[in-house]
Amino acid sequence: MTPRLIPFIFILSILSATPLKDADITEFIEARYAGADSAVYSMISEDFRYFHTPYVGLGISTVYQDGSLLITGIVDDSLQNMLIVGDRIREMNGKVVSADSPAIIGRVGEKQKLIVIKKGDSTFTEMAVPLILVQFSQNDSLFLADMITYADVWHDYHVEILDIVSKKVNAAVYYHWEGSREEGGPVFHFYAMEMIYIDKKTDLIYKVEGVWSEKQFRDQFR
User: Fold this and answer.
1) What percent of the chain has pLDDT over 90?
2) How does 68-98 read in b/e, with b if 16+ C-beta sit within 10 Å?
3) What ranges in the chain are assigned the alpha helix state H?
4) To 10 degrees, what angle do helices 140-153 and 22-34 make?
5) Is 3.10.450.50 the CATH classification of the domain at 20-54+135-219?
6) What are the tens digits of pLDDT across the range 31-42?
7) What is the pLDDT of residues 134-176, one digit of tens each?
8) pLDDT at 187 over 50
């Protein structure tokens, strides 16, 4: 090996071990909530996946219709196989459902007592359905599409980066988002913690994973 190659290899090894810059993480978060699809697209890899923050629930999506919650979707039928699309939930834990029924809170495995009208039937069926841990993911196209749709909903918003911990090829970011849908309207807000992973060969983000907040963790011990 020639002597002048040694300094080059040494410098290259230092660069490859350089942690992610906080400014890069901040730029990604801000561009994402601004709906700047071109900017975000330039930062993510072709095999990018966004893993939504896991949550504990029944693993279903519903709409309130004619005095019941109509199941319109199953997040993962390998986890939730007791309920199907088209079932109607009339009661939950002894209370008649409504359009304002509160979100389910509990720990994984805790059973929810439901009164259900199964699809194609007209009789009431009592069921005890356990809560499950649900996490779904999106590829780059779905992530970008949802990002734009979300940004279009808000009249104004603000993102504050509260903390970033960076390593060689990943970073943990904690931030606060708030926004309103119309001028002078109510302000909505949330806190989020996410892990961001970088491909060290391309310097592109290949995965973002939402992680539990302290409240979600504590809810497991209610």
Assistant:
1) 63
2) bbbbeebbeeeebeebeeebbbebbeeeebe
3) 5-16, 22-34, 37-41, 140-153, 214-219
4) 70
5) yes
6) 999 999 999 999
7) 888 899 999 999 999 999 999 999 999 999 998 888 999 999 9
8) yes
Domain ranges of the chain: 20-54+135-219, 55-134
β-pair partners for 88: 70, 117
Q: How confident is the model at residue 86 (pLDDT cuts 50, 70, 90)?
A: very high
Q: pTM (2 decimals)?
A: 0.69
Q: Which residue has the tokens 């999506």?
A: 61
Residue 32, judged by CB atoms within 10 A of its CB (0-12, 13-18, 19+), counts as buried
At the top level of CATH, the class of 55-134 is mainly beta
Strand partners for 204: 199
Characterise 93 by phi-psi region: left (phi > 0), alpha (psi -120 to 50), beta (else): left
Residue 79 in tokens: 């986890």
